Amino acid sequence: MKDIIEIQKIIVPETFTLLEKRYEILRNISALQPIGRRALSNRLHIGERIVRGEVEFFNKQGLIHVDASGMTVSNDGETVIEGLKEFIYDIRGIKDLEKELKRKLNIKEVIIVPGNLDIEDYVFNDISKATSKLINQLVNENDIIGVTGGNTMAAVAEGVKQQSKDKNITVVPARGGLGRRVESQANTIAAKLANKLKGNYQMLHVSDTLSKEILKSIMEDPEISKITELIKQVNLLIFGIGRADKMAKRRELPEDIVQKLTESRAVAEAFGFYFNIDGEIVYEMKTIGIQFSDFINIPNAIGVAGGTGKAEAIYAITKLKKDMILVTDEGATREILENF
């Protein structure tokens, strides 16, 4: 297949250019639906006249529906998107990129989806689907699964295939709660994932941003101690990789700590720890949940992040654990390969 594609690129390169362009447009309609032509044009930075022509083509082929609320993708359109995915992977050389990034980072496995999450919304869905598929492949009987919070992890849990067999799986939140959105809290995601895997779950009803004195008091609670001991037994962890600056803002860290992170050139955050580009800890938050020492010893760990803006954070976190699996996108991959 690869050799044929390379030959076709030489003989009819315009075919692949048009195919990729139409795939991008259709994927963005799917991700943003319902959406109008002007909004889509602005989103893709393509002239409205060009978008109008492509929309007419898609509509004529029965791939989209157009009404007063905007454009939506039909069932046939979604089938085309899914069917083209592997072909687009081949055109863009995604498999070669996976091998190259794996060598660069020297980690266990790399899974890449096309596109750049920073500018293409549909990439979020592809990253979450790839992670969900990976979880279904890795999960075993009697596993204790840890999961962090965030929108990506919520989408991952939603996409995991519903299991019919009880494998005695337990899902736990890897950290305490952060932020105000219940649907993206680690507790909520753990419950959703457990339901999909026909397993059990435990909840950690503790904020991830408490003072040291309160944390010390809470740790003495028997129920909290029971859950934290269970977290230490996690053998499959799914976690998001955060940028240091954005996570410091989400956690509402004091100005002096933010200044310290800046001076220490922190680029990544995971589990309440902040790291520089070399994977060295520059700041540690006292929080309840999985600790750095626990993370190092977990047999299967899946880190998830995409977008060129996450490149530094990804590079730093992969310095910590060489037997981890990374799910990312083309944007972050090319940024790492070109600049690190």
TrEMBL record:
A Pfam match: CggR_N
Domain of life: Bacteria
InterPro entries with a match to the protein in the record: CggR_N, NagB/RpiA_transferase-like, SorC_transcr_regulators, Sugar-bd_dom_put, WH-like_DNA-bd_sf, WH_DNA-bd_sf
Gene Ontology terms, MF aspect: carbohydrate binding; DNA binding
Keywords from the UniProt entry: DNA-binding, Transcription, Transcription regulation
Domain Sugar-binding residues, every copy: 92-338
The CggR N-terminal DNA binding domain, residue ranges: 19-88
Protein family (similarity comment): Belongs to the SorC transcriptional regulatory family.
Protein name as annotated: Central glycolytic genes regulator
Organism: Alkaliphilus peptidifermentans DSM 18978
